[in-house]
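so my prof wants the structure for this chain in the tokens format not the other one, which i didnt know existed until like an hour ago. anyway here's the sequence
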Amino acid sequence: MNLSYIHHVAIIASDYEKSRHFYTELLEFPIINEVYRKERESYKCDFKVGESQIELFSFPSPPKRPNQPEAAGLRHLCFGVTDIEQTVSDLKKKGIRCEEIRSDPYTGKSYTFFKDPDGLPLEVYER
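here's what i got, hopefully its the right format
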């Protein structure tokens, strides 16, 4: 088996336009492709994140996530950064509230969390 990298993470937004703006304008992820899937009444937008991607979906009235695969939510998504202080400063300048920077007790690396428009937890972790 050759599972060598994560290709993408999929997120279902409750407000597609708000989430699209957050990921493209505030986090500055470039759009790879965006389509409207009429048969599912669903938008799908792919963003480039380093060598990986985020797939952002819309669905009419997605249920809150107890455990269905087509519901809004994820545990958290973590982005590696080289300078966490600068990243947090950049996020705050864009009106994104971050938790205090903490230190991983096992690696000594710094990390913190912030949230997307649906309240999904996003993490930045200093490499």
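also thought this was worth mentioning. The first helix runs from residue 16 to 26.
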